[in-house]
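Hello,

Our lab assistant flagged a job as stuck in the queue for most of the afternoon. It eventually completed. Since we weren't sure the result was trustworthy after the delay, we are filing this so someone can double-check. Below is the sequence as submitted and the structure that was eventually returned. Let us know if re-running is recommended.
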Amino acid sequence: NAMRNRDVRGGFNEPGFLRSKRFLMDVARRPTWLIGQLKQGKPKLSNLAPYIGASSLSAETARDAGDLLHHEVGWEILTSLRERWKGSLVIKGILDPHDAVRAVQLGADAVWVSNHGGRQLESAPASIDALPLIKAAIGNGAKLFMDGGIRSGEDIVKVGACGADMAFSGRSLLYGIGAADAAGAEHGLKMLRDGT
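-- returned structure --
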């Protein structure tokens, strides 16, 4: 697992965090969130239900879900996927031009430039810095996607100018939803459309 400094600072990784005074104070300051959680019950992992059953989120479920993931991913897995999957194949998380070229050579239909929001490695290069180098390396050999730091329509234009065929933005919508539910999501979309 990656070291997530924000979680460490917030005490999230401490044993008993969910029973800690800090967590209880945070919950007390957000009664609307608490009421919503109580109404919905424990989170469900519906997309994993076919593989691990319809159980609620628990330590055992998390372990089972983790066992489904490849912990060591190499080019041989991409080759195997390409042989078995005849549909479109998009490889996400590419930041190096040589890796992009290799992915296209092995049959990727699109390369998705992403540092996953710096979630695993805070010192990873910014996606926008890697994008022009990757475009120069692969040319028109595959579609080129990018995410990371897209907060406005202006950002989308910049990504397109650097060679991407598509830009993805999630955080601005999530912030909007967190602040004002559906109205917040609409505001986030408006910001992307209007370039503000």
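-- support follow-up --
The delay was a queue issue, not a problem with the job. The result is valid. The chain has a mean pLDDT of 84. The longest strand covers residues 90-94.
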